[in-house]
Amino acid sequence: MAVIAGRAAALERAAPADEPVGTHSRTRAVVGHLALGTLGVLCAFPIYWLYATSLRAPQDIYSLAPLPWPLSAQSYVDAFRVLDVGGLLLNTTVMAVLIALGQLLTGLLAAYAFAAWEFRGKSLLYLAFVATWLVPFQVTMLPNYVLLSQLGVLNTIAGVVLPSLCTALGVILLRQHVQAFPTELLEAARLDGRGSWSTLWTVVVPNLRPALAALGILLFVNAWNEYFWPALVLQRSNAVLQLGLRSFMGTEGNDWGPMMATAGMACLPVLVLYLVLQRQIVNGFVRSGLK
Amino acid sequence: MFVELDAPAPVAVRAVPPPSRSARLRRAGRSLVPYLYLAPGLVLLGIWVYRPLVQTGQLSFFSWNLLPTTPMVPVGFENYERLFTLPEFGTSIWRTVVLVLGLLPFTVVVPVAVGLLARRVRGRAAVIYQALVFAPLLIAPVAGAAVWQWLLDPRSGAINQVLGTTTNWLQEPGPAQLAIIVITGWHVLGFAVLVVAAGLAGISDDYAGAAALDGATPGQVTRWITLPLLSPTLVFLVLMTVLLSAQWSFPLIDTLTNGGPAGATTNVYYLLWDYGFHSFDAGLGAAAGVIFFAGFGVIAAALVALSDRVTFHDN
Question: What region holds the ABC transmembrane type-1 domain (chain A) (predicted)?
Answer without folding.
Answer: 89-277
